[in-house]
């Protein structure tokens, strides 16, 4: 999540990748970097990293997270849409292969 008025552009992506490469290792470079409005969090404020990972790996949203236990359940909508786009792209590429 970026500060208001800051956009994720190619220069910012390069800067992030350079910082990760320098501080950690090239093997930790992410495949994709996305700008999101907010990070899904529990009622106690913890980031919901594992449920998002499971969602992006193809599990249904109903099985990975309880929206009632979230501080910001609306934040999931962007991730659900991303998971659906990825699933459709994977299905299309497997049909073409």
Automatic annotation (TrEMBL):
Transmembrane segments: none
Record's keyword annotation contains Ligase: yes
GO molecular function: acetoacetate-CoA ligase activity
Ligase is among the record's keywords: yes
Signal sequence region: none
Gene3D superfamilies membership: 3.30.300.30
Catalytic activity, EC: 6.2.1.16
InterPro entries named among the record's database cross-references: AMP-bd_C_sf (IPR045851)
Keywords, sorted A to Z: Ligase
PANTHER family, A to Z: ACETOACETYL-COA SYNTHETASE (PTHR42921)
Name of the molecule in the record: Acetoacetate--CoA ligase
Native organism: Variovorax paradoxus
């Amino acid at each position: 999540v970026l500060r208001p008025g800051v956009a994720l552009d190619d220069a910012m992506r390069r800067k992030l990748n350079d910082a990760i490469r320098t501080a950690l290792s090239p093997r930790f470079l992410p495949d994709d970097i996305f700008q999101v409005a907010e990070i899904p969090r529990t009622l106690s404020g913890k980031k919901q990293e594992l449920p998002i990972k499971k969602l992006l790996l193809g599990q249904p949203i109903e099985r990975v997270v309880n929206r009632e236990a979230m501080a910001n359940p609306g934040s999931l909508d962007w991730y659900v849409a991303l998971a659906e786009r990825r699933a459709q792209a994977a299905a299309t590429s497997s049909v073409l292969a």
